[in-house]
Design brief:
- It contains 5 helices and 47 strands.
- By secondary structure, the chain is mostly beta strands.
- The chain has a 22-stranded antiparallel barrel. It has a 4-stranded mixed β-sheet with strand order 8-9-5-10. It has a 4-stranded mixed β-sheet with strand order 13-18-19-17.
- The protein is globular, with a radius of gyration of 27 Å.
Length: 819
Amino acid sequence: MRSGAERRLVTEAWADASNGCAIVLLLSTVLTTGMVGVANAQTPGSSAPVAAPAARSASYSFSIPPQPLAGAISAFSRVTGIDVVGDGGIGRGVGSPGVAGNLTPHQALTRLLAGTGLSYRFTNASTVAIQRPNAGGGIGAAPSGSISLDTIDVQGETAWGPVNGFVASRSATATKTDTPIIEVPQSISVVTQDQMQTRQAQSVNETLNYTPGVLAGSNGNQFNSTGAQIRGFNASPTSGSLYLNGLRSINVGDIDPYALERVEVMRGPASVLYGQNEPGGVIGLVTKRPTERPFHEVRLQGGSFGQRGGGFDFGGPVTEDRSLLYRFTGLMREGGNGIDFSNDRRALLSGAVTWRPTDVTELNAFAMHQRDDSKWNYGLPARGTALPNPNGRIPITRYIGEPAFDYSNTETTAIGYNFQHRATDSLVFRQNLQYSHEIWDYRDVAPVGLQADLRTLDRSASRVRYGWDTFAVDNHAELKATTGVLHHTVLFGVDYRMRKSTQQGTWDGVVGPIDVFAPVYGSPVFMPADNFGSVQTQNLTGIYLQDQIKLERWILTLGGRHDWVDTRTVGIFNNAVNNQNSSAFTKRAGLGYEFDSGMVPYISYSESFVPTSGTTFDGTPFKPTTGIQHEAGIKFQPKDTNLRMTAAVYDLRRQNVTTIDPAHPGFSIQIGEVTSRGFEFEAVASLTSNLNLTAAYAYNDARVTRSNGADLGKRPFRSPPHLASLWADYTIREGALNGLGFGGGIHYVSASVGDALNTFYAPAYTVVDAMIRYDIDNWRFSVNATNLFDTQYVAACFFIDQCNVGRVRTVLGRVSYRW
């Protein structure tokens, strides 16, 4: 099916003179290699075959108040997912009486157009045309003597496409279907491409800085690693929380935001759709897809610490009928990051092709390759950063490794496709497939502990090479059906993932200590031959069923899944073989009620699981670690305002956690539990074409609630109880300063415990960001400052001798040209 949101490339505000209210209308110009007159569009009386309309027999709950026709049609598209096309001026000055009730698309359109003098017709499986009855040549054809206008689309976004502005209205991360966010009974946030561009995000971590419940960059100032905590739990590629285009195929590294259309965060357990997963949530990355309109961008950037680079992004139709589209994106950049002796380099190439052999079949294929060369920054000891040191404060830019010895290089190659075929009006088949090959090759010098003088740091050296080959495929069918008064969207799927991971190296390299206050580099590093390594092959198969049920204003979501996991690990040096099989059944349920105002209160229950390696004293294999969450919240997205607000409370428990076995020292038993309770709030708005706002606050109380160890009752490290952020930017759209935009943001992180026993804390910190830009013709000039006031802070601590430092002030300028 053609992605309507990918065709949305022009945004126009229509003013309603009677009430002074600005309604944002999503428009996209449909072009071939040049501008195609719409007089060639299919006429109503043509005998050419027309695909069956999308879900003509299905009913939807409408609550669209009287308003300008543009806003009413946009609201209709958001509810149904149907694209609406018409010429560029067909709705100007026209009002709609609105529509309310449980109606089919035919019934709703008839009422929306009542009294306007306009009519409609379905042109394919997902598009309806608005036309003047006397248009003669069909939709978009000009009457005799008039000027032919461009064909436009008036529709809501799709869950896999771009978003105009800051406010996304749809997502597939939480349901695998194209569902309005307010109907998802779980907390979800979407960081749009506009947000990433406005803030000049350089990493996935930076895209999440203003997202509630997420401590982004908990690994500190790292270039090639995505590290985050969600609701007090780890959410990183290695924990299985990172998904690319709906599949888990990325195990390490950081995908550059320039390759992405959106970044989505669903908080809470997600195993009912994705299989094994940590309970905090998932981070979904959606790559850029081809565009129907020719699009070209080149850009150059430079800034602090010798940063420099450039990029390009091209897209458009390959054939005149737009059955074949392309997208090609690339960048290269390098420069320092504020840490002594650190220089980061990144190269990215990403391509995508969309092929539509018929109106009901679509294949989106993509491939990407990214290489990062950098050094791993272990941070600094707590004594001198998070805690006092009689020798003074250690400079935040201090490097404690060996510059000539250290490196950390990652390489990621991914290829795959998203296929969709609409068999009937109500039945859609999808297959998502990916293969990825990843390498992480590093050697470094790491901290061991400060000596008694609190300035001499003992160190160790390591050399490790990791490799991952991952194949993932997800097949599912989506059926829309009605049983009596119930309207169903049923999803049935089977997915499979095979991951082969290899690691080999040595941990026990020998290197001399260093004075952290007066470092002298060049200490010899002795590395013995590789002495550890393994090859692990993991096969994961899951079968799942989900039903999204609507009864008038009630929305019920039910889901269940069964997983089978087979793991085989072979030691490289000792040839030891370990086989472990596990299975789990997870489920989810949620109930919401949609009011006319766009407010949806909801409650939900969800589960997760992660296989656990090892056995008890008597040889019994460990059971999977499980997650259970209860959540209640309110979502509010007014139908006539580009605003979304969400508030939620939750109780999240991770169970079957291993803890020491008091009867058998050296062994573990699974009676441990970590409980995370909290509250989250998020508001995202593009109130006019001038003003964007985001605001977020999260409170989290995470504690070890069952344990045989000394950590009982303690908080997990890297889990601050308070996170808050605010961003605003404003663009002048008229007068002498037309095109000038400026804004800034502030995010606050409260103190977090620095180790498992809570013996010390990483202090709270506040960081301020700022931006200014100027658009003129096809040019954009922008400057962004991250950590504007150069606050020296510790992002989080892992133990007493490793506190990861945050990013120092960085100013980045960029010039872009689009045509």
